[in-house]
Amino acid sequence: MPQKPKRPCRYKGCPKLVSNTSGYCEEHEKLMSKHYDKFIRSPEHNKRYGHHWRKIRARFIKGHLFCESCFAGGKYVLATEVHHIKPLSEGGKNDTENLMALCSSCHAKIHSSKK
Fold first, then answer.
1. Phi/psi zone of residue 13: left (φ > 0), alpha (ψ -120 to 50 degrees), beta?
2. Which residue, among 79, 114, 82, 77, has the nearest Cα to 96 in the 3D structure?
3. Are strands 17-18 and 81-84 parallel, antiparallel or unpaired?
4. Fewest CB atoms less than 10 Å from the CB: which of 3, 9, 32, 86?
5. SS3 state of residue 82
6. pLDDT tens for residues 21-69?
7. Nearest Cα to 94, choosing from 56, 66, 61, 63?
8. Helix, coil or strand: residue 9
């Protein structure tokens, strides 16, 4: 199957060609990600999911390798997301009893059903 042609980096003045979905070259993708976190993402989000959350998440994923939802159905799919059973916005905590290891597909299903 033929590949899509590469496009110029979306960053103004960058001549590099890219094929990734973000539209930015590696260098500018990191820069734009930092810009998003600092200026566009809400300050509340940054407070909830800062340095401490990343440590908790890494420790939890290390101990729960497989998606809990898929595992209950007899499938072995690696977990990539950590889900809060009771959301932080509703008073949930970062305790292990309130966390679930999920694959990105199951995590998306849970969040799409809440809307």
1. left
2. 82
3. unpaired
4. 3
5. strand
6. 889 999 999 999 888 877 776 777 666 777 888 899 999 999 999 999 9
7. 56
8. coil
pTM confidence score: 0.61
- What is the residue type of 67? C
- Coil vs helix vs strand at 69: helix
- Sequence-distant (≥ 6) Cβ neighbours of residue 3 within 8 angstroms: 19
Closest listed residue to residue 81, CA positions, set 70, 92, 93: 70
Q: Which residue has the tokens 């994923």?
A: 61
Query: Encoding tokens for residue 40?
Result: 């566009």
Residue 4, SS3? coil
